[in-house]
């Protein structure tokens, strides 16, 4: 029994040491992990720095978003920052600034501020934005120049989605919102390489690029019905598969945070899985999702599921460990007594 006892002691110490030095982790309960990240990173100085940077580049919408985040998590920020944001967001100046930025984004199809990006996405919800992009990118393609396969593919899918929106009396609009936000993100440079690669693969399975000639010819006629018919012939399985999943996640983010914030948030998703995590985050944090992501340095809810080292868990739960180890000793002792009793009977 002595050998068994010392063997148990040795094995237990070895297991604990291995867990500690190998850095093995156990997952935290999600809400607790999120709380720890927010407590550590979402601080008043960090929020003030973000607000000052936003005000310096005249991005009032972003400054206001961080001020909202400070209020939500009860992080008091400097009075001068609060007063400046309030002044900038007064009815007159805010309306004029928002209208100008939105209008510029609407007509150019791209933007830099939240309002400008929202305008770009809104303009893309019409067939005009998709026709414009097909004509531009398709023209580059047929002349052998560099073109964006993603923008061309999304514009073609967008034409079909617009047709579905019209046919369903607007019921297809959410899907079209997801397509448009992805396309504007590609133009704005907020579509990451990883997500862009996955999107490109999904588009190649959905759009027959070799048969786009009919779409380009229809685009030249400026006949929107002809363009929709031609696009419908080269787009397949747009309502299912990887593309539909990505479009659905972007649509969900857009419904919660708004189109402009959605375009900006996409730069934190480097894969379809992280995009799904961002969609989940938007349900949890709402319009302040991007602020949480930027302050914590995390790209997804998966990243919030940080682990703690098992060695630390054991130290923090020493009593439980002692009980566990005592159970092993009890088992060894019981087996020893049983063996002695059996020998005595023999």
Shape: flat
Low-confidence regions: 23-28, 165-173, 303-319
Strand order of the largest sheet: 1-2
Distance from first to last alpha carbon: 19 Å
| Mean pLDDT score | 77
- Tally of separate helices: 20
Tell me the radius of gyration.
29 Å
The tally of structural domains comes to: 3
Helical content (DSSP H or I, runs of 4+): over 70%
Number of strands: 2
Beta-strand level of the residues, as a percent range?
Answer: under 5%
Structural class: mainly alpha
H/E element order: HEHHHHHHHHHHHHHHHHHEHH
Largest sheet: 2 strands, antiparallel
What does this 3D model show about the protein?
This protein has helices spanning 2-21, 30-41, 44-56, 60-72, 79-88, 91-108, 114-124, 127-142, 149-167, 173-188, 193-206, 213-220, 224-234, 241-257, 259-265, 272-285, 289-296, 301-304, 310-316, 318-345; strands spanning 25-27, 307-309. It has 346 residues and is an all-alpha fold. A two-stranded antiparallel ribbon has the order 1-2.
Q: Could you outline the blueprint of secondary structure elements for this entry?
A:
Layout lengths: L1 H20 L3 E3 L2 H12 L2 H13 L3 H13 L6 H10 L2 H18 L5 H11 L2 H16 L6 H19 L5 H16 L4 H14 L6 H8 L3 H11 L6 H17 L1 H7 L6 H14 L3 H8 L4 H4 L2 E3 H7 L1 H28 L1
Antiparallel strand pairs: 1-2
Structure keywords:
346 residues, mainly alpha, 3 domains, two-stranded antiparallel sheet, 2% strand, flat
